[in-house]
Design brief:
By secondary structure, the protein is of the alpha/beta class. It has 2 domains: 150 residues, Alpha/beta knot; 69 residues, tRNA(m1g37)methyltransferase, domain 2 (Trp Operon Repressor, Chain A). It is 32% helix and 18% strand. The protein is built from 6 helices and 10 strands, in the order E-H-E-E-E-H-E-H-E-E-E-H-E-E-H-H. Strand 5, helix 3 and strand 6 form a beta-alpha-beta unit. Helix 5 crosses helix 6. The longest helix is centred in the last third of the chain and has 19 residues.
């Protein structure tokens, strides 16, 4: 997969190359990361990329011209999807990461900055993405989150692909509890079923724990999981 990022601070993304399996995936070419700074496409002597908003108001707004020039300089590589990082976007979910990892050859991530961006930048995006109902100083952290979440799902990134199958938010359920040695730590004991060697019983316990934990901690996700199962039973 090819990933292109348009950002005023592209240097912050270089840390991804040091980030465990993500860094190794980028180094090995499982994903390619290309960085583009709108300042490099500004046409004035000061490399100006922001301006005061029409109608007045606090803060500066990202200008459309350098962003469009940076975007139009990016070559297309197969099926491309452009994402705009904005608190006004749709909240990011695991199903989005899975969809992009499976069906897209190229992601272009647009990072806003300053007080916001000129409204005419929005048409560049196929989707607008938010991490949640809060505001950050720029779109870089959300973009890095998308990169991390997508690249870890690409074939070859994770050494044991099966480890991705029952983790949190897979199929709307949270992950089951995990334990390691010792079997007893400060009077807290590993459930006996996990030490039984009965793989079918372990699988049933883990599935039951996923449902219980989701029902208690994220009833909204549990309701989605229930509705999904009902739909499957009706088809």
């Amino acid at each position: 997969m090819r990933i292109d990022v348009i950002s005023l601070v592209p240097e912050v993304f270089r840390g991804l190359f040091q980030l465990g399996v993500i860094g190794r995936a980028l180094t090995r070419g499982i994903a390619e990361l290309h960085l583009h700074n709108p300042r490099d496409f500004a046409t004035d002597r000061y490399r100006k990329v922001d301006d005061e908003p029409y109608g007045g108001g606090a803060g500066m707004v990202l200008k459309p011209e350098p962003v469009y020039a940076a975007f139009e300089s990016i070559p297309t590589s197969g099926v491309r999807r452009t994402l705009l990082m904005t608190p006004q976007g749709k909240r990011l979910h695991q199903v989005d990461l899975e969809r992009w990892a499976k069906s897209v050859d190229q992601l272009v991530l647009l990072c806003g900055h300053y007080e916001g961006f000129d409204e005419r930048i929005r048409p560049l995006a196929d989707e607008e993405v938010s991490l949640g109902d809060f505001v950050l100083t720029g779109g870089e952290l959300p973009a890095m989150t998308v990169i991390n979440g997508v690249v870890r799902l690409l074939p070859g990134t994770v050494g044991t692909p099966a480890s991705l199958e029952a983790e949190s938010h897979q199929g709307f359920l949270l992950e089951h509890p995990q334990y390691t040695r010792p079997s007893v730590f400060r009077d807290m004991e590993v459930p006996e079923v996990l030490r039984s060697g009965d793989h079918q019983a372990i699988a049933r316990w883990r599935e039951g724990e996923r449902q219980r934990r989701t029902r208690e901690r994220r009833p909204d996700l549990f309701a989605l999981w229930q509705s999904q199962n009902i739909s499957r039973e009706q088809t």
